[in-house]
Design a protein that fits this description.
heterodimer, A: about 110 residues, alpha+beta, 2 helices, B: Rossmann fold, eight-stranded mixed beta sheet
Chain lengths: ~110, ~300
């Protein structure tokens, strides 16, 4: 989707952190990307390399930690694992499942030198 | 993208005001430092305007980026300051949402709108679902009793804003250039220019795209997704993010149902699979069918926004 915008968001966060915490080179950028978020990891990897050019994370490795999806099943009244927004509850088969976890798109941490 | 200031491809325009990025231009930083640089192929360098000034940004400072000709630019932050390198590798905790910057602008818009009792709706759909026709009819029905203003998002042209202005409602066109969605910063600037009245309705017609606008909060009260019956009924499953992000789905062009093989119940069932909380109203922007329910939905939300007005 808008992976280029997301990569630019990552660059901003990394640059801001570098300025406020006083480091000048990032080796690894670690992201947390939820299974139910609207990010395509392969596309993000491609954009990441392009967008980080000439930043403090130029050439940095991108590590994506996946976060499994989960939802609240209204029939079972409990949290169940789902891997897509339109998945039924794996226990009762109902589609009355509201996504509750695995929607995040976060910069988790950086390895700097 | 400009490697010096990181200011993107320079395609965004508001009301056709262009950003010429070939010329030399200035940046005013949050700490008051002004930098001027050119975008020529060779020699891209920061040049401090006053001798001896250090290129420095406030830690969480906003990168103000207005051009001498008054146009707005939606690029992003500057190239980094160079701190002395550290010899040993170490981990730094960040824990920040990638869209934090957009979300910050969205919250600011939301506060601005709440202060004034303005109900903002973000209309999203594929291209060709009939959003603009729907808006025109909605404005015609509403404007005798409540002021309506419109922000129009398209990659190019101001055709849609012109169609809206023909109704008498103020409209502001944002051209996103190569961009595939409106973001909260663009809408914030549009709000300042448009200055909608207190206790009014603001309709934001997003770029026709069922994918990207889902992730970008603009500060609206609700996203309204428009699905027309000339599309496939399986779109909610093919493009689930948008239907998950929306509060209301308008099934548009229902006057065409006799001529089509579009199972409405199936489309609604699919949408509810993705988002069990989604409300659904069937409408025709051509005949006005279903508009009582749609206008009633707006009225109920507007009453809440007006009641919650803080100034």
């Amino acid at each position: 989707m808008h992976e280029m915008s997301l990569a630019e968001g990552i660059r901003q966060i990394v640059e801001d952190a570098g300025r406020s915490q006083g480091f000048g080179k990032v080796k690894i950028v670690v992201l947390e990307i939820g299974e139910l978020s609207s990010v395509e990891p392969e596309s993000l990897r491609f954009c990441f390399d392009v967008v980080m050019k000439d930043s403090i994370a130029d050439g940095a490795q991108l590590q994506i930690d996946p976060v499994p999806g989960s939802g609240w099943c209204m029939q079972c009244a409990e949290t169940v694992p789902i891997s897509a927004l339109y998945d039924p509850c794996p226990k009762c088969g109902s589609y009355q499942v509201q996504a509750t976890g695995g929607t995040e798109m976060r910069v988790k941490e950086l390895e700097i030198e | 993208m400009c490697n010096v200031c990181g200011c993107g491809t320079g395609e965004t325009r508001i009301e056709g005001e262009a950003v010429d990025h070939e010329q030399e231009h200035e940046h005013v930083h949050a700490d008051g430092t002004v930098h001027r640089h050119s975008h020529g192929a060779a020699g891209q360098k920061w040049v401090p305007v006053a001798a001896g000034q250090v290129h420095r940004h406030a830690p969480a400072g906003e990168h103000v980026h207005e051009h001498a000709d008054g146009s707005l630019h939606y690029g992003h932050g500057p190239a980094g300051a160079h701190a002395p390198g550290m010899s040993q590798a170490q981990m730094v905790k960040i824990e920040q949402n990638i869209l934090a910057k957009n979300d910050g602008f969205a919250e600011r818009n939301r506060g601005w709108l709440a202060e004034r009792g303005i109900l903002a709706l973000n209309l999203v759909s594929s291209p060709g679902s009939g959003k603009t026709t729907l808006l025109v009819r909605t404005i015609e029905a509403l404007q005798s009793r409540v002021p309506v203003a419109v922000v129009e998002g398209d990659q190019q042209t101001s055709f849609d804003a012109e169609r809206i202005r023909a109704t008498g409602a103020p409209a502001l066109q944002i051209n996103t250039g190569k961009g595939c969605h409106l973001d909260a910063h663009m809408v914030g600037r549009a709000l300042e220019k448009l200055a909608p009245a207190d206790d009014s309705v603001l309709l934001i017609e997003n770029v026709g795209n069922l994918v990207c606008p889902a992730a970008f909060d603009l500060g609206e009260a609700a996203k309204v997704v428009v699905l027309s019956v000339t599309e496939g009924e399986d779109k909610p499953l093919k493009y689930p993010d948008m239907f998950a992000a929306a509060s209301l789905m308008l099934v548009n062009k229902i006057d065409l149902l006799p001529y089509l093989n579009f199972p409405v119940d199936k489309a609604i069932e699919y949408a509810l699979r993705v988002n069990p909380q989604l409300q659904v109203i069937q409408v025709s922007a051509t005949t006005g069918a279903g508009f009582d329910a749609w206008l009633g939905w707006i009225d109920a939300r507007l009453a809440e926004a007006v009641a919650a007005r803080t100034r």
